[in-house]
Amino acid sequence: MSEIFAFIEAEKTTHGVAFLCRLLNVARSSFYAWLASAKNRDARKAADEALAHEIIVIHAASRHTYGVPRIHAELRGLGRRVNRKRVARLMREHDVQGAHRRRRRSLTRPDKKARPAPDLIGRDFTASVPGTKLVGDITFLPTAEGWLYLYLACWLDLATREVVGYAMADHHRASLVVDALKMAHGRGDLQPGCITHSDRGSEYTSAEFRCQVGELGLQQSCGRTGSCFDNAAAESFWALLKEEIGTRTWPDRAAARTEGFTFIETFYNRRRLRKHNVFGYLTPAETRQRHQHTPAA
């Protein structure tokens, strides 16, 4: 209908409004109502264009990973009172999309001779206090140097989903996960008896790792063999990392190391919004700060 009214507006000086309305079988009152609302339409269009520009900027700042929920939360955090459906519509119109997750290859190699620790998590990936439950796992970043992968081990705090410890190396021996655990202990303010949960990979069932867990006064926990759901929180983080940095091949391990460090330290921990069931959309670092100021949370 708007196209018909726009045609009448363009041709009214030549043929007259009454004639054009009869010819096109529309009411003159409808045309004049459409004409009266032209200023409002122009204002809405200008507002949509300004909002679309903000959405594109936020999407670019998120490394082209945010979807509708996080862009909407970011706008609300900036003081913009905007409807979520409007954000979704503008993202569709401007072809702005969040990143999509891809499947990844598992590195879990169980040690059949080792006796695994009990499962102290039981698929309960929640924690009310930081430093009481960690989940860990290993992934790899492919490089153009053939089979020379860069391996990345991380420990996430379940109360904040912050990466409190990580290590990168050209191997995935036990020392890799031990180094990541030492970092988590140094910067994660771990409580005595903190649970460190992982899969049953040989790195985590090794004597070296078990000894380190005992020296730090922590508790070891392992999921079942072949069940990714027993360590779903760590698996979810790897899926997110591969989704948001892409599954490309880096030219060498130095480039992959830089990308991994930048993603964890400058984006994921301090910039990426995550919806907390109590505090709402916050970064992992902000969630930790909120816990420190709200002990009862």
Structural summary, described in words:
The chain is of the alpha/beta class. 46% of the residues lie in helices and 13% in strands. The protein has 11 helices and 7 strands. It has helices spanning 2-15, 17-24, 28-36, 38-61, 68-77, 84-93, 174-187, 207-215, 232-245, 253-268, 284-293, and strands at residues 133-141, 150-157, 162-169, 195-198, 219-222, 274-276, 280-282. It has a 5-stranded mixed beta sheet with strand order 3-2-1-4-5, sandwiched between helices. A hairpin with a 4-residue loop joins strand 2 (150-157) and strand 3. Helix 7 (174-187) runs parallel beside helix 8 (207-215). The longest helix is centred in the N-terminal third of the chain and has 24 residues, at 38-61. It is elongated and about 90 Å long.
Short description:
Involved in the transposition of the insertion sequence. By secondary structure, the protein is α/β, with parallel strands linked by helices.
What is the topology?
Layout: H1 2-15, H2 17-24, H3 28-36, H4 38-61, H5 68-77, H6 84-93, E1 133-141, E2 150-157, E3 162-169, H7 174-187, E4 195-198, H8 207-215, E5 219-222, H9 232-245, H10 253-268, E6 274-276, E7 280-282, H11 284-293
Parallel strand pairs: 1-4, 4-5
Antiparallel strand pairs: 1-2, 2-3, 6-7
For the biggest β-sheet, the strand order reads 3-2-1-4-5
- Fraction of residues in H or I helices: 40-55%
The outline comes out as elongated
CA radius of gyration is 27 Å
Main beta sheet: strand number and arrangement?
Answer: 5 strands, mixed
User: Structural class of the helix and strand makeup?
Assistant: alpha/beta
Query: Which H/E pattern describes the elements?
Result: HHHHHHEEEHEHEHHEEH
- pLDDT < 50 runs, ≥5 residues: none
Please, what is the average pLDDT?
Answer: 84
The N- to C-terminal Cα distance equals 54 Å
Strand segment count: 7
User: Strand fraction band?
Assistant: 5-15%
Number of helices: 11
